[in-house]
Amino acid sequence: MSRQLGLGEGSWVLDPFCGVGTTQLTGKELGINTVGVDVAELPVFVSRVKTADYDVEQLRKVSERVFSEKFRRPSLSGLSKLARRAFPRHVLEDVVFFREIVENIEDETAKGFFKLGLMSTAMKASYVVKDGGLLRIVRERNVPPFRKFYRSRIKRMIKDVKACRMLNPAVATFKADSRSLGFLEDEAFDAVITSPPYLNKIEYTRVYSVENELFFKGSEPMLRSYIGDNVRLEEGFENAGGVPAVAEAYFQDLRRVLSEIHRVLKRKGVGVFVIAQGVFPTGVVETEKIFVEIAGETGFETEKLWLVNRRVATRDRVVKIGYADEYVVFTRKP
């Protein structure tokens, strides 16, 4: 893909919906400078940890200190009912115990590394099952001894860091609203590669509520079916007329995002967007067509669309109403 887009060492790529940092990590592997933006604290944290530079020996020393700590039973007061139901009590006590130890690690880079490992291990040792956009508690799951499980995971993570051979381009991830990228300079990027939130997909909601409560002090959840944080329609917005109000809000926000992307993209720069059709009880919204229309009005030229996935669209989970397609849309700033 980097060759097809004319990217190489020294190029700059923006991902305004970076999630957990796949674009930044790929850029680091290829020597391409990358900037990621996401509105939610959890994915921004994961992205930063995944793309940080580490001292393996330092991580090993910190690991020895962390796992030499003798268990002290922590207080679970203040935790929500959901958090208490999500774990066996002894596992939750272990998680909170190690959370306090990790928070006291002085080096911020190492702290992030051990926090990500703890969060990942905690959810693997929980009763939580994520089914699409739903979060279920399944108490029949086998839960391993936590301290041994966490230590084993940290060892694997350190081993992965040691084995990984990365180049050293510039990498940055910002917690920000992609509709307002004023902190980025005009015409700074050679390409934008991103996957905006899918219209009316619910994976962006409560499925991360346990992690948010335990590790991010109950910060905002992932976003749902529109790009902003609530539905506010501007007067005179008619681009998506005839579709549900939440879809109109989505396309209204998308226009603002594309306007910002157009501003920060260099002339002849490429925009690559993963776009999926939206599914509503009233039918399928052809998101890619409206996206192409908005992109044109914003100043982009659409060069091609790749159909990459097709799934059955249903109402009430069982009633088939058609098919929903997923596209990669290639655009260019003239």
**How many domains is the backbone divided into?**
2
Calculate Rg over CA atoms. Answer: 22 Å
Give helix % range. 25-40%
Oligomer: single chain
**DSSP strand (E) fraction?**
15-25%
Number of helices: 10
Instruction: Walk across the major sheet and give the strand order.
Output: 5-2-1-6-7-11-10
In round numbers, the mean pLDDT is: 88
Describe the biggest sheet? 7 strands, mixed
**Span between N and C termini?**
20 Å
Structure report:
The longest helix is centred in the last third of the chain and has 20 residues, at 245-264. A 7-stranded mixed sheet has the order 5-2-1-6-7-11-10. The chain folds into 2 domains: 12-17 and 183-332, no CATH class; 54-163, no CATH class. The chain is an alpha/beta fold. The radius of gyration is 22 Å and the shape is globular. The chain has 10 helices and 11 strands. The model is unreliable at 221-226 and 228-240 (pLDDT under 50). Strand 10 (301-315) and strand 11 (319-332) form a beta hairpin. The protein has helices spanning 22-30, 41-50, 56-67, 81-85, 89-103, 108-124, 146-163, 209-215, 245-264, 287-298; strands spanning 12-15, 33-38, 128-131, 134-137, 171-175, 189-194, 265-276, 278-280, 283-285, 301-315, 319-332. The chain is 37% helix and 23% strand.
